[in-house]
Amino acid sequence: MKMRPPKASSKSTTTNPTPIKKLSLSDFEIGKPLGKGKFGRVYLARQVQSKYIVALKVIFKEQLERYRMHHQLRREMEIQTSLNHPNVLHLYGWFHDDERIFLILEYAHRGELYKELQKYGHLSEKRAATVCNGRGGAG
Question: Which of 59, 73, 28 shows the shortest CA–CA distance to 46?
């Protein structure tokens, strides 16, 4: 049985993505860490109500302000909400608290293409073509 994405997805316009339903961290069961970056961390998570598995990206507002990255985050959200490609993770929604912004992302069970590139240094021509055509499950 295929599960549906969380009902609390965000409705996005090209100028201002805004959440439809008020969500909070208590709507999710947080699992293992999947990665970390300059602005926060990504965790495996499950929405309590639907049991849907997602990646929950936690971004610290302090870091966004320090590096003045608000515009870049907004743009990332717009792109991930509107793009429909098998190798681009879909942004289902978002919410925030006083210190953090939480992005509810499609979970890439095969991992990131970036990690594959780090491991092998490059992709074969055949593998690159497969990934570009959207059949490669790279992220």
Answer: 28
